[in-house]
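Hi P.,

Sorry for the delay on this. The queue was packed all week, but I finally got your sequence through. Input first:
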Amino acid sequence: MMRKTLLACAFAAVLPFHGAMAGDAKLSASQLRGLAPGAYEVAVMDVVSLNVRLFANGKIVGDTGGQHDTGHWHVAGDRLCISWSKWLGGQMRCSSLSDQNGALIGNGLTIKRI
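Then the structure:
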């Protein structure tokens, strides 16, 4: 499982994370801020699944296959931005999200509230 986690994180690290799919209505900044507090299942490139908790104070916590990380999130314009302490080398990644039948979709990510 660790290999899958590392592989998924490596793919995610090279994604441009710049927008939702064309033609989809992007979530607004206020809708993105409204995601917290909340717990989510995040599928990365359909390779690995993470359980993620967003807190209103900007903290994020993630778990997958015995791996754990924390970090920070914020909204920049109409994009959700996340930086993990360890995963993705601690680099900030931002993505627009669109709502498709209750699932939030952004470059390589599918996010569902749990």
